[in-house]
Write a structure and sequence with these properties.
Phosphatidylinositol 3-kinase Catalytic Subunit, Chain A, Domain 5; 4-stranded antiparallel beta sheet; globular; HipA_N1; HipA-like_C; transferase; kinase; HipA_Ser/Thr_kinase
Length: 429
């Protein structure tokens, strides 16, 4: 049998970092490999984790193909969206290298994929200007794509997750559909049907991100907008920074999510939740941060926020790390934070165990402090992080303009206030 092989060069922060390849190995299986570029070794050094915690730069010991495949899979959409984006591009949805041949110009983070031997375009073509009707059309197509129905316009961005969403460019004057290699600046995620029990999900997400900004846990802007008759949340990308000197006026910042860093392949979407497993876990995410020279304190603060607002969806793909050009690593700004527990039939199981407990109604401030201690934080330091976050959140709940979030009902606000107060009441003396 003749092997079918695919190759792509990966560029990061202005230079080639690696070549990814995939080939058939029989019985519908593929082998995905990575070969480091000598220039990456010279620029960032032996065992640098600039690309990934999972994939340190080491030309003498290439990473295991399963690790490479899991990491690349983590950049791709999930479920039907992935399948239909691959069909749109005429590639195998199980071949991540072929997938990024079509969608490698705008990934999550700063990685850009190009044909072997090529370079990313220095002078990117401008995107296609969109009016409200044009944005609405793309949002409707994202809904159709998620439902396995017909498509019309091929997307240019690869965005992980299962919810219908698109990436667009906003330049201060209006919206544009990005050209193939143009970095998008915002993610637009479609609201659920008005008759859905979670129809307010985008509204509570915008409100929760507003709270996260007020307590210093995110730089993301989020708002709910309607284009024609399509409601969505519009979220600024934290991995894009305005820079007049960069092509397209946007500088990319590299990032990876915790599932990628831990080598968890999330083709099965349930694997991004802990739910009693060894991996993923907050302790292992904290270890990644510490191993890469970052403080884990913000991760504890983020966990406090997620528990207080009732965000059951704080799984490993909703926790990320920024891997900056100078080699430093920090926890990424909070994103995909929503309020869930005001819904009558909401799950009460937290996405990650906290000191061995996953029932959100039983997790206390004591559990949070104990969790921080398990990461190596001194007890008093962990307690300060928990107390400060809860105090700041309680102040933010009193200051936030609730009229700016009309889609968030009184029960949702009351639930968050009560949860915050209950956690504060349980702080160690």
């Amino acid at each position: 049998m003749t092997e079918r092989a695919t190759e792509l060069d990966a560029w990061l922060y202005g230079s080639r970092v690696a070549r990814f390849s995939s080939r058939d190995v029989g019985r519908d299986a593929r082998r995905v490999e990575l070969e480091w570029d000598d220039g990456a070794l010279r620029r960032w050094g032996y065992r640098s984790r600039l690309l990934s915690h999972l994939l340190p730069i080491d030309p003498d010991e290439p990473p295991a193909p399963a690790r490479v495949a899991a990491w690349l899979d983590g950049l791709m959409p999930e479920g039907r969206i992935r399948e239909h984006m691959a069909i749109d591009a005429g590639v195998d949805p199980d071949d991540p290298v072929a997938f990024f041949r079509a969608y490698g110009g705008d990934t999550v983070g700063a990685l850009v994929f190009v044909a072997p031997g090529a370079e990313p375009a220095a002078d990117r073509r401008p995107g296609t200007r969109l009016d409200d009707a044009g944005v609405a059309a793309l949002l409707r197509e994202s809904i159709a794509r998620a439902g396995g129905q017909g498509r019309a316009q091929r997307l240019t961005s690869s965005l992980p997750g299962m919810e219908p969403k698109i990436g667009l460019v906003h330049d201060g004057e209006g919206w544009s559909r990005a050209s193939d290699e143009q970095p998008t600046t915002h993610i637009l995620k479609v609201a659920r049907d008005p008759g859905s029990p979670t129809a307010d999900l985008v509204d509570t997400e915008a409100a929760a991100i507003d709270l996260a900004r007020r307590v210093g846990l995110t730089t993301v802007d989020a708002r709910v907008e309607t284009f024609d008759d399509v409601r969505c949340i519009v979220v600024s990308r934290y991995d894009r920074v305005p820079d007049p000197g960069a092509p397209g006026g946007q500088r990319r910042v590299h990032q990876e999510d915790a599932a990628q860093a831990l080598g968890i392949n999330t083709r099965d979407p349930e694997r991004k939740f802990q739910h009693g497993r060894t991996l993923p876990s907050l302790e292992r995410v904290a270890r990644v941060l510490r191993d890469d020279g970052a403080r884990p304190d913000p991760l504890l603060a983020l966990t406090v926020l997620n528990l207080a607002v009732g965000n059951t969806d704080a799984h490993a793909k909703n926790i990320s790390m920024l891997r900056r050009q100078d080699g430093t690593v920090v926890l990424a700004p909070a994103y995909d934070v929503s309020m869930h527990l005001h819904h009558e039939y909401a799950s009460r199981v937290f996405a990650m165990d906290v000191a061995g407990e996953r029932d959100m109604d039983r997790i206390t401030a004591g559990h949070l402090v104990a969790e921080g201690e398990s990461w190596g934080l001194p007890a008093r330091r962990a307690a300060r992080v928990v107390a400060r976050t809860l105090d700041d959140l309680r102040s933010a709940l009193g200051e936030i303009d609730r009229d700016a979030h009309p889609g968030v009902g009184p029960l949702a606000w009351r639930t968050v206030v009560e949860r915050t107060d209950a956690l504060r009441a349980g702080l160690p003396a």
